[in-house]
Design brief:
84% of the residues lie in helices and 0% in strands. The protein has ten helices and no strands.
Length: 193
């Protein structure tokens, strides 16, 4: 079926020598604007190459580099960009205000959680820049949180490579339908609310 072929093609692509540049580019732009988490791209690379540490280190590096760019956008360009961004993301100001109040309450930990949790890292980065959060603490929290997150994903897919491959190959179509259904629900909820 379609998803099985897509899975097979993805694994073949990830085995190519120069394909890691795509992973690193995704980890960079995910920190700024790309809507999908880097983890779902890191996993097939680990499975295809049967290695994780080098992939994790470079994925973390480029993710934090993208985060730094998003931070700088927040500092220098937010006043100009906010008008345009709010057209597409009307609740962005609310998210930044929430981030500000949480930062005042939790400090360094909120940036650490923003880089590790499912909360979009890009919002953490831009909000950190808008609020002019200490750059050193921002970078340190980003390295720790993104590094830990990618290390866990990389290590788990490395450690359970064969079991993960068997599971995915067996249930890829079913899992794909569930993910598609969840995406549709999110979009319907977003545009109806």
């Amino acid at each position: 079926m379609f998803f099985k072929k897509l899975y097979d093609d993805t694994i073949l692509f990830c085995k190519k020598k120069s394909s890691t540049s795509v992973l690193y580019f995704i980890s960079f732009i995910e920190s700024i604007i790309f809507p999908l988490p880097t983890d779902i791209f890191l996993a097939p690379f680990v499975m295809a190459r049967k290695e994780y540490l080098r992939l994790v280190i470079f994925t973390t590096f480029f993710s934090v580099l993208g985060g730094i760019l998003a931070y700088l956008i927040g500092i220098f360009f937010w006043d100009f960009l906010s008008i345009h961004v709010e057209q597409y993301f009307p609740n962005i100001s609310e998210k930044i205000e929430n981030f500000d109040s949480q930062y005042k309450e939790l400090g360094f930990l909120i940036v650490l959680m923003g880089g590790f949790s499912p909360f979009p890292y890009k919002i953490t980065c831009v909000a950190s820049g808008i609020l002019n959060i200490n750059f050193f603490f921002f970078v340190l929290a980003s390295i720790l949180s993104r590094g830990l997150r990618f290390f866990l994903v990389g290590y788990l897919f490395y450690k359970f490579n064969e079991k993960a491959k068997e599971f995915l190959e067996k249930y890829i179509n079913f899992l794909s339908l569930i993910v598609l259904f969840i995406i549709i629900l999110i979009l319907v909820n977003k545009y109806l609310s």
